[in-house]
């Protein structure tokens, strides 16, 4: 590994890609200090290579380069050998913060095979970490009991779909893992950190009968969804330990591994695998030291640690999600 490559790569921060949504609000600004300019900003895409939404570096010598250019320049030193061997030069994950002022549509995502066949895309396995939740807020995740295509269609037609779905009250710190095919919706009053496969393929099946000012509803994907839905009851809420200054395992699946690191004071961080790592700060603030540089992070900040970097020094009081392949 050449020394100039090591010198050129450092912890990377990207410009947030802000998305207006019919269900969005203003918490991404008030709670996470994002530079939003509308009253209906629903998403901040923190790191993305979705076409037309490719993240651009906002710090250091590589400022202005987009993530695809970094992959082309540094390849394995950026992604890690295990990632390149599996995905080539494609960045396999998408990171978001989501503010649901109103209920999101009830939706699901296809698996890899369907997404490849229909959309030339990855599927969308994802997880949610609840950062903030108003009183009585909830999520919709899967069916209450095993269902069937026939039962599902009957309730969809009669506008009683919600009666057979699992509505779960939530609070800060809750985690949900959503396999492809799981019907789901983020409820009003919830701010979430979302980790998912790189995909923007969503099948919307019910939108609470909302219409715009012209009286038009958003497009539904009833037919596409039918053979993509998992009609079985699924357990998706994750229990995990929350020990200070320890990388507590939360989710490990075929597409990503997520740990929770409650930071209290000083922590020597070592990378355990040959892959990039992303740190999402969900609460508090900290300083991250790399060589002679210091990076200040607080709730709402996301930073990518290239694969070539294997040691950092952290100091502060914060909660971090630590994501790798």
**Can you tell me the overall shape?**
globular
Which sequence of SSEs, written as H and E, runs from N to C?
A: HEHEEEHHHEEHEEHEEEEEHEEEEEE
The description of the largest β-sheet is:
6 strands, antiparallel
Number of distinct helices: 8
Query: If strands are numbered along the chain, what order do they take across the biggest sheet?
Result: 1-2-5-12-7-10
> What are the low-pLDDT stretches, counting only 5+ consecutive residues below 50?
1-7
State the share of residues found in helices, binned by percent: 10-25%
Mean pLDDT: 95
Beta-strand content estimate = 35-45%
Report how far the terminal alpha carbons are from each other.
21 Å
Based on CA atoms alone, the radius of gyration comes out at: 20 Å
Strand elements, count = 19
SSE-based structural type: alpha+beta
């Amino acid at each position: 590994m050449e020394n100039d490559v090591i010198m050129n790569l450092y912890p990377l921060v990207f410009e947030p890609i802000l998305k207006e949504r019919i269900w969005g609000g203003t918490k991404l600004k008030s709670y996470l200090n994002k530079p939003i300019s509308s009253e209906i900003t629903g998403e901040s895409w923190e790191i993305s290579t979705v076409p037309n939404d490719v993240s651009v570096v906002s710090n250091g010598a590589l400022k202005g380069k987009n993530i695809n250019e970094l992959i082309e320049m540094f390849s394995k030193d950026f992604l890690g050998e295990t990632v390149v061997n599996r995905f080539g030069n494609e960045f396999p994950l998408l990171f978001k913060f989501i503010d649901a002022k109103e209920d999101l549509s009830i939706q699901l995502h296809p698996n890899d095979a369907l997404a490849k066949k229909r959309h030339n895309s990855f599927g969308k396995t994802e997880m949610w970490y609840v950062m903030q939740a108003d009183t009585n807020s909830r999520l919709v995740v899967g069916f209450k009991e095993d269902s069937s295509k026939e039962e599902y269609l009957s309730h969809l037609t009669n506008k009683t779909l919600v009666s057979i779905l699992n509505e779960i009250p939530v609070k800060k710190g809750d985690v949900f893992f959503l396999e492809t095919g799981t019907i789901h919706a983020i409820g009003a009053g919830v701010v979430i950190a979302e980790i998912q496969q790189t995909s923007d393929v969503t099948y919307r099946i019910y939108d609470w009968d909302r219409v715009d000012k012209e009286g038009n509803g958003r497009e539904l994907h009833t037919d596409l969804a039918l053979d993509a839905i998992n009609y079985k009851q699924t357990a998706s809420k994750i229990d995990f330990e929350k020990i200070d200054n320890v990388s507590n395992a939360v989710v490990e699946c075929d597409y990503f591994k997520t740990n929770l690191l409650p930071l209290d004071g000083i922590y020597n961080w070592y990378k355990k695998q040959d892959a990039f790592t992303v740190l999402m700060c969900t609460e508090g603030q900290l300083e991250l030291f790399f060589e002679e540089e210091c990076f200040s992070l607080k709730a709402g900040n996301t930073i990518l640690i290239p694969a070539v970097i294997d040691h950092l020094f952290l100091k502060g009081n914060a909660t971090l999600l630590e994501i790798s392949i």
